[in-house]
Structure formats: C-alpha cells, structure tokens
C-alpha cells in the first residue's frame, strides 16, 4: 500500500492465522521479530504473508491475508 498516491478504501477478502507455539510461554519483555512479505499485487488485489518470531528463533505465528483495493 506504500505505493498508492493517497489512502484508499480496502477490504479483507481472506485472513488465516496459524498459532505455532504457546503464546503464554512468551516472556512479555522479550523482543519479537515481525517479518512481512507481499509476493503479489495485481488487478486490485494484494496478498501478504507475515511471521512472528520469538527471541530464541522459534516461529510463533504466521498469517496470510488477501486484500481488495476498492476503486
């Protein structure tokens, strides 16, 4: 969305999340790494995959979201 000239209305078409670790075991003061990738965007649709990594290198969660940019 950073390449759009101005804010646009958008809608989520699909959203899935996978919790891959026990979130209760995460230390509240431990750093986390957030990584996001947008591998494709065309014809008003955009997909993103995001990952959340624990400070010890464990993959904690990941999600996938498809957006529609409303013209």
Describe this structure in words.
The chain is mostly beta strands and 71 residues long. The chain has no helices and four strands. It has strands spanning 10-19, 33-42, 45-53, 59-69. It has a four-stranded antiparallel β-sheet with strand order 1-4-3-2, with no helix packed on it. The chain is elongated, with a radius of gyration of 15 Å. The model has no long low-confidence stretch (mean pLDDT 90).
Low confidence ranges: none
The end-to-end distance, rounded to whole angstroms, is 14 Å
Strand ordering within the main sheet? 1-4-3-2
What kind of sheet is the major sheet?
A: 4 strands, antiparallel
List keywords for this structure.
single chain, 71 residues, mainly beta, four-stranded antiparallel sheet
């Amino acid at each position: 969305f950073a390449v759009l000239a101005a804010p646009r209305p958008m809608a989520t078409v699909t959203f899935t999340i996978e919790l891959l670790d026990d979130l209760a075991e995460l230390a509240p003061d431990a750093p986390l790494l957030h990584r996001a990738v947008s591998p494709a965007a065309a014809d008003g649709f955009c997909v993103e995959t995001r990952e959340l990594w624990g400070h010890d290198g464990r993959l904690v969660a990941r999600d996938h979201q498809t957006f529609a940019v409303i013209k």
